Amino acid sequence: QVQLVESGGGLVQAGDSLRLSCAASGRTFGRHTIAWFRQAPGKEREFVAGISLSGGSTYYADSMKGRFTISRDNAKNTVYLQMNSLKPEDTAVYYCAARLSILVMTNQRQYDYWGQGTQVTVSS
Questions:
Q1: What is the pLDDT of residues 23-52, one digit of tens each?
Q2: pLDDT band at residue 1, thresholds of 50, 70 and 90?
Q3: β 46-51/33-39 pair status
Q4: Cα(46)–Cα(121) distance, rounded to whole angstroms?
Q5: In the chain, what is the greatest distance between 2 CA atoms, to the nearest angstrom?
Q6: Using DSSP, how many helices (H) and how many strands (E) does the chain show?
Q7: Is 25 exposed, middle or buried (0-12, 13-18, 19+ CB in 10 A)?
Q8: CA neighbor of 72 nearest in space, from 84, 61, 82, 63
């Protein structure tokens, strides 16, 4: 089992950067692919980025490519989401999720464990 705790959210202005962290407990962290999702008010939760077991492969939603970077440090049981050039439309609750698999999936139903989320608010 894996427990996930997100941190790093906050209120920023358009164009600013934030780095979110997802700290995991449990000995099997290295066997889980990790993804970030987000949910804006009144919208469905959407895939943001995902990373493979070793961190060698990363995947992004089209609207995040070039602005967001996902990375992981298996020694620290932590996954990061570096977000640059933030826009007001990036405002959402950001969740990290874990999946006991070698495959990164974009469908939230494929993930077994979730954190509680961290709020990111981008003002214009």
A1: 999 888 889 999 999 999 999 999 999 999
A2: confident
A3: antiparallel
A4: 16
A5: 42
A6: 0, 11
A7: exposed
A8: 82
